[in-house]
Amino acid sequence: MKLFIPLIVSILLMTACTFTPGTKGTGVFPPVDSNYKSILVISDLHMTDKRALNGTTIPDSPQYNNIPFSGFRENKAKMLEFIDWVIENKDWISEIVINGDLFDEWAVPMQLNVIDSYQNENTFVKAIASANQDIIQGFKDIFQEGIKITSIPGNHDMGVTKEDYQEIFGDSVNYVTTYDKAASIEDTKGLGTYYPQSFAKKSQTDNSSSQEKTLFDDITGIIAIEHGHRYDFWNCPDLYSNRSASNLELCDGNQVDGITNETILPIGFYVNRMIVSQNLKGNYSSSRSIANMDLYVTNEDSVYTLQTGDKIHSVYKNCWTALKTANYINSDINYLYNDLDGFNGKYLTADYMPAKIDIRSIYVKAEYESTWEAIKRLNNVADPYADNLSYYNSATNMIFKSKLDEAAKTQYFDLDSQVQLVVFGHTHLPKLQTYNDKNHIYTNSGTWVDDTKNGSTFVVITPYVENEENKLLVGNYNFNSKDDIACNFKSLTAVLPLTRE
């Protein structure tokens, strides 16, 4: 007989977070007294190769030679300190989840080939790892201390493979590219959702022989962790646009409308390359979104009506025009080099407009909305016709990032009553809130690259039992140093449903 204890959720400012949320202070860890260890979630490290970390020769723009353009460069030391802190706290940490964008294959100026002298994408990824060998070794050290490490694809590392992870990490990191709870169905290339299956128990000092199984021993389906880029028109794997321009060999295993080309680079890749060219100016901030750069049309009504291909094209064109006008790149450059994902050569920026048939003409009026619905289906979006995932909302989420956060509700909470906690990354904005009459929790793990107060953030998920009810404490923190960990939001406690045979 199964006993179901009703789901109860309450919001509490825990005594473990004794300082005012959002201010600096020393966090008390573990965040709650528990017989179980915690899961920590980080995301968006954006590790780059030595060109980005140290600077390199920039063809056609010698004034920008040897200027670093890596966002992670500034926070690298802090991540190493975080790794040390994790090891020092190994007794209460069960697992580290890297929620996408560990590697950054997009942080390359327009004037450079992405892969360049690295020969192929595999050696390029390994070069990024080599340039950050101290971080890679740190994760290996965490694993050697008995802490599990799981990593999930993001948009900036959607081309990284399991084989790459095996070569770089050996068996230290579990790379998840599946989307179902049983972890048996391969997801679209560049995506993955992770469902933790249990919380590890702390070492027991007593001789208790109780074998009674609790929910914390099998939590499959209660927590869903993914990067979140599949709901983003600009940054999701795109098997429709630009495929005819790629030189990838045909692959029988991945057909789209009878075409077997595997190109998945979205328009955001090319916009990002433009932004990196701007960053050669020396004032990098990955938090500087397209909107913040005033690259959209200035009329606010126009921003709210990005509903046609012409509007999307105007955004893209304005992005390019603003970069040239601001003298961030040489005004004579109107092309972009690329040798990633099957591309090989010098392309006009117009060549990368998302289109269904002919991408070579800037005047083609593509069926954007129908293409977007097809892309969502290929990316396993559960409800591709949901209003908040419409073409309009997805195309504007670079401005209104809350629309992407809302996808947690649409993809999980509204369709799967078992999922109670969802963790995204991608937006670089830490977040923590409840949904559905406070019966579900959503949190965003933020980033480790931004030079703002939102940088260097992480999530702590801790199970505990109180008054014979199973609870889950979710905290969102900013890591300033080992001795200075700020609480970004009030911690949330959720009482999970307890099911026993």
What does this structure look like?
The chain is an alpha/beta fold and 501 residues long. The chain is built from twelve helices and 18 strands. It has helices spanning 50-54, 76-88, 121-131, 133-144, 162-169, 267-279, 300-303, 309-325, 368-378, 391-395, 402-405, 407-413; strands at 3-4, 8-11, 38-42, 93-99, 148-152, 174-175, 193-194, 223-226, 335-338, 345-348, 421-424, 431-435, 440-444, 457-466, 469-481, 484-487, 492-495, 499-500. Strands 2, 3, 4, 5, 6, 14, 15, 16 and 17 form a nine-stranded mixed sheet that branches. A five-stranded mixed sheet has the order 7-8-11-13-12, with helices on one face. The protein has a two-stranded antiparallel ribbon with strand order 1-18.
Provide key terms for this protein.
about 500 residues, alpha/beta, 5-stranded mixed beta sheet, about 15% strand, disordered N terminus
Short description:
This protein has 501 residues and is an alpha/beta fold. The chain has helices at residues 50-54, 76-88, 121-131, 133-144, 162-169, 267-279, 300-303, 309-325, 368-378, 391-395, 402-405, 407-413, and strands at residues 3-4, 8-11, 38-42, 93-99, 148-152, 174-175, 193-194, 223-226, 335-338, 345-348, 421-424, 431-435, 440-444, 457-466, 469-481, 484-487, 492-495, 499-500. Helices cover 22% and strands 17% of the residues.
